[in-house]
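Lab meeting notes turned into a lecture example. A postdoc, R.K., suggested we walk through two folding results consecutively so the class can see how the record format repeats. The first protein's sequence and structure tokens come next.
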Amino acid sequence: MRHNIWRVITFIPMWKRLLYVLIAFGVATLSGALLLPAVWYFEESSRFMESLIIVLSYFREGVIVMFYSLMVIVCLVLIYQYERKRYLQFHIERMTSLVEELHANRDLVEPSVPPELEQLMATVRAISDSAAKAEQEVLQADRLKHELVTNVAHDLRSPLTSITGYLDLIHSDRYRDEVELRHYIQVIHENATHLKGLINDIFDYTFLQNDRIALQTSEVRLDELLNQLIMQSTLRLSEVGMEARFSSSAERPIVEGDALKLVRVFENILENAIRYGRDGTYIDMFIDDTDEAVLINMTNYGEEAIPSRDIPYVFERFFRVEQSRAHYTGGSGLGLAIAKSIIDLHEGEIHVTSQPRETTFTIILPKVSSNAVHEKSWLV
């Protein structure tokens, strides 16, 4: 409180302070002069007032000092309230000007404001920061939308160009024999399948990003799910000369999740391992657990490591680490982004570490508590 009064006082120019003091004493003197006739009147008309005045006359100097002091203080308090209003108005106008400057220059350092306005200034600054952030998000959304359209057009054009090219050859009978015709048809089929996969990935990623996919959750045993995935992928692995190996040290690898969506996660990581790790022969899957979570490691042994500069962007859409792996291209660039989106929906985590001849994707999913499992089995 004392600091606030002192700020208002120092805000008033020195000449004005002296003027206010003179005005206060002048008002006190004028008030005394105006009250004297009333005192005389009551002295003549009232015995009580006459007696009181006689008693007070013994303390005449003290009464006069007290009266003057009281009147001066009242005047100064009124003047202080007036100047405090001007003081706050000055800083509000200053803040208004500051907000306009902040709008024009985001790096402006805000000046100090009185304690009464600090909260208001903080709120104004927060609103300004939110507006700037929203503006940046809109610009980023426009940029990402442009990139999405560009990347989708680029990814869809290659298989479409191949399909239309071979169809033109077939349509114009430009093939030597039935063997070459069958080759053309096989190439068309492969590109059409690839095109279908691209379109499916784009739709899935869009739905996941817009929260338009609802999870059909149930208790999922991840060891059984991975074993089933390995069995289903045996033919695909044998075609590229690879083998999946599974091991587990988990006591109870049970999570609450959408089994089909989790299968999609592991399929995408497995396909990534096949595409970039086929020269390593093996893909190892390992499960461990704690009281709170289940940990899944999927490791491939490809010769090329993911560059450390690319690690933070591996799970971004349309990102491919292909500068040194160009002979294994062909993915949509959305597989790992879809995997991360699904893991995020399950409130889990996904990370990747990479070095020459070993790249490991680590997935951590929250575990179903043993008490919950026991209660469900008892109810059954």
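The second example is placed directly after the first for contrast:
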Amino acid sequence: MRRYGKHTDEDDIRSRPNRKGNRPRTHIRPKHEDAAEGLVLTVDRGRLTCLVDDRIVMAMKARELGRKAAVVGDRVAIVGDLTGDKDTLARIVRIEERASVLRRTADDDDPYERVVVANADQLAVVTALADPEPRPRLIDRCLVAAYDGGLEPLLVLTKSDLAPPDKLLELYGDLDIPYVVTSRAELESGEAADRVREQLDGRITAFVGHSGVGKTTLVNALVPEERRRTTGHVNAVTGRGRHTTTSALALPLSGAGGWVIDTPGVRSFGLAHVDPSRVILAFPDLEPGTAGCPRACSHDEPDCALDAWVAEGYADPARLYSLRRLLATRERTEGD
């Protein structure tokens, strides 16, 4: 059946667009100089909740960003509807340069690294002293990730009413890491939150910890107006709690001018991405001694110049032992 009349003109004929051939390709991307600055608060199935000035704006990643993904803590450039009204959606067109990144892999053999948090300047490693039992190797791995990513570590030890902290603190004494010890009674009274808050003032702090250690309970105490559901059960056989925080979330710390980023509970912390040369930067007393190290030195081999550096009295041997213990954790599982 003829679709058009006897005398047709080319302009009357509609053609199906060819996505591969009709659209001119160009490598020139728009600069979006009028884009607003936003802070990514959380990410959920491709939708990013951002803070733009004092408004909460929902956004999605622009296609031009390709595979580059924005994560919690990222500073981003946003265009489109920035009113924050219901059912509106803006576009993230640029991810600004990151000052720091907390990264991990699924395991030590996985080449794919995942950025957990961007632009945090402190990593609070939350560990219970009992129920569940502390896992020093997991703590070590979190510390290595912090040093590698440019974050300063903070130890937060919970449930001191069930076990004393002395043994665990002795293990990390030579690293000069600040710490806060809390009990369940102090958490209920608010005293624990007050002491932890002193370490967070004016900073962006990411909280990480094994499930069941009380991480989200502590975050709830720090930011009571934004309570998240916490775990109420720790498996008596495995010592593991149930994951109740399923996505990272940045929360403003009231009265202190800082931010708290609550992250999902972790059961492993792969370090396949870690470069030993970056971890050494967190040891300023040892770093100058690496000048004589062979190329790609692991800092735990016979030709490592750090042995002579310490023997000559430039650094404490305990510090070298601590460095090597942290680097060696890349070769062991958390439960070793």
